[in-house]
Amino acid sequence: MAQAQNQELTERFIQFYRNYYRDAIGQLAQKYPNEQRSLYIDYDDLYRFDPDLAEDFLNQPDQLREYAEEALRLYDLPADVKLGKAHVRLRNIDRAVDIRSIRVHDDHIGKLIAVSGIVRKATDVRPKITEAAFECQRCGTMTYIPQSDGNFQEPHECQGCERQGPFRVNFDQSEFIDSQKIRVQESPEGLRGGETPQAIDIDLEDDITGRVTAGDHVTVTGVLHIEQQKSGQEKSAIFDLYMDGMSITVEDEEFEDMEITDEDKQQIIEISNRENIYEDMVASVAPAIYGYDEEKMAMILQLFSGVTKHLPDGSRIRGDLHMLLIGDPGTGKSQMLSYIQNIAPRSVYTSGKGSSSAGLTAAAVRDDFGDGQQWTLEAGALVLADKGIAAVDELDKMRPEDRSAMHEALEQQKISISKAGINATLKSRCSLLGAANPKYGRFDQYEPIGEQIDLEPALISRFDLIFTVTDQPDPEHDGKLADHILKTNYAGELNTQRTHVPTSKFTEEEVNSVTEEVAPEIDAELLRKYIAFSKRNCYPTMTEEAKAAIREFYVDLRAKGADEDAPVPVTARKLEALVRLAEASARVRLSDEVSEEDATRVIEIVRSCLQDIGVDPETGQFDADVVETGTSKSQRDRIKTLKQLISEIEEEFEEGAPVDEVLDRADEIGMGRDKAEGEIEKLRRKGEVYEPKTDHLRTT
Ligand code: ADP
Ligand code: MG
Q1: Which pLDDT does position 617 carry in this prediction?
Q2: How far is the CA of 455 from the centre of ligand 1 (A)?
Q3: Intervals of CATH 1.10.10 along the chain
Q4: What number does CATH give the domain 284-471?
Q5: Kinase among the record's keywords (predicted)?
Q6: Would you say the CB of residue 289 lies under 6 angstroms from ligand 1?
Q7: Quick check: CB of 290 below 6 Å from ligand 1?
Q8: CATH of domain 2-91
Q9: Residue 57 has what DSSP assignment?
């Protein structure tokens, strides 16, 4: 551009500032450079002032920004103020681009675009050298070399003596700027049916660094650039995309992307008034999976979730429900879990093993994202699912690091990371829907679940509902299951044949009628909107009747264990779970009140879950210890008795207590030889007894 034109553009910006940003610049002048170093320009203001100038800014951002900043330096300010290195940052531009749809033919390279998503990774903030001062060790002359991204540039020769150094970088004479790199990934709600989220890396500099952390939902305005990929020294023909961030805004985490039209709203309200609303909801979850009505109902309640309560003392009770399916392989757990993605307004589906270095929670890692030197904070599944649902299959296979972070993540709904100078608290206000297999492959009904899955009791107790899924042959059930699976598959066959074989002998009506039978009752897309709408608008409160019903159920359960020696039936955690579930039940029909029916509905679910897992298999009593410590009371008693027995007997024999003798006496006191044998084996594994000689025992 010609000199005159440059001046003209600078003049335009000065005029613009005078008309629109007089006060803002005055404030910047007062706070510069320590508290504020940028003038933020709203795109709408610039457009109103001069549409051509605004569009030029979008299309030639690097040049226009220079004029805008030059104008800022020339702007008439009080004599003693200089805005030497102040930035001009444009925001709220009207060129929002989906991360996954950035393509060359859209002609956005080198231009200003805005992307929205969730911060998946963020490096810590580190100084970056922008101009290096090389001091010649022979003659002392300083050679200044501007540094851009990429490799560190060194001088070919000294500007003074023209020899090749040696040089030393003089830090005082060099210029540095704060820098940070983040990776922004598409928001989970933007994805349909399990698409892999796409991401873009963004470089941030100076005053906009350190503003966001992993897990934040952001909109970034910046210049789209391309960079040639390299593997070692080899240059590739393929380029990478990245952005230079100009401004960054943290967005509110609600389902902002979910648009609900008036027409949708009408449909939603109509459905909510249906007589069979609860049955219809259940029939809308994974229709290809036969049965599991209770589990599906629980999944629905989880999707709607309870109300997050803020107490006057500042504390908070989570409204999100956590649910676990434990069971035999091949019982449809994975299928049900993955269906969540179709109906949850925001969801993340992953396996316990995790696909990223952050796993399920979060991690501070040192990888090539931050030049290999910088630490990067990376958000895992539970953070990415913030305000949504995290479906985690094979939860029992999660990594040890996740295990310990999980307790806090589930109850306090945050994850604290403190490592290598990174101190961060990430939000994980999500519901966890987990699936796990029993430790020894198949489920054993006569063992407490705590011993059968690889999750520690403290973690298990955080689940509001735990369902056990056993796979036992039962001719009647098996027949119905077979019919259902065959029907679903047949519908799939018909559908596929019709699309691929033009001469298919099946008519469209035939296909439709079969397909209809296995289709969800409420269309998945509408259900997503329904759920989002309800969570946005319904904040139900308990009626007296609902409170009374829950109270009675709880007190009654506790009373069963009131006997001094009896196991404690349930803990207060269950009570909160009941409240959450009942609130969710009210939300299903868009009600502001938790009715007695809501309470009864969820009491039935909780009772049946407790029966499946909380019951001490030997006494038939509810035993919270089974759930919360993994060992039932009768089992603990037995272990104690047996240890005592062994120590008594070993007194009588020189070489330790003979196993046969121990089993005989155990039998005498009614324990049974088999049970005793099993417990001895466990004691031996735990190292509480050992064998000084074959078939002899000693206590430690
Ligand atoms: P899991 O994760 O419990 O090991 P999967 O979800 O992988 O089991 O299910 C295995 C297969 O069996 C799937 O193809 C699933 O559709 C089918 N299946 C299992 N149980 C059912 C059921 N109740 N109804 C329909 N299909 C089922
Ligand atoms: Mg599975």
Answers
A1: 53
A2: 23
A3: 633-699
A4: 3.40.50.300
A5: no
A6: yes
A7: yes
A8: 3.30.1640.10
A9: H
Which residues have CB under 8 Å from 614's CB, separation 6+?
Answer: 569, 570, 622, 623, 624, 626, 627
Return residue ranges of the chain for CATH 3.30.1640.10.
2-91
CATH superfamily of 99-250: Nucleic acid-binding proteins (2.40.50.140)
Mean pLDDT value across the chain:
85
297 has pLDDT over 50: yes
280, with CB counted inside 10 A (0-12, 13-18, 19+), is: middle
User: Tens of pLDDT along 135-183?
Assistant: 888 888 888 988 876 678 888 888 888 888 788 888 999 999 999 999 9
Are residues 698 and 657 in contact, defined by beta-carbon separation less than 8 angstroms? yes
Task: State in Å: Cα 473 to ligand 1 middle.
Answer: 15
Contact 220, 186 (CB under 8 A): no
Q: At what angle do helices 333-343 and 524-537 cross, to 10 degrees?
A: 70
- Mean pLDDT value of segment 115-124: 90
Cite the residue boundaries of each domain of the chain with CATH code 2.40.50.140.
99-250
1.10.10, 1.10.12, 2.60.40, 3.10.620: CATH of 633-699: 1.10.10
For 480-535, what is each residue's pLDDT tens digit?
889 889 988 988 888 888 888 888 788 888 888 878 878 888 999 899 999 999 99
Residue 333 CA, ligand 2 centroid: distance in Å: 6
395 CA to centre of ligand 2 in angstroms: 10
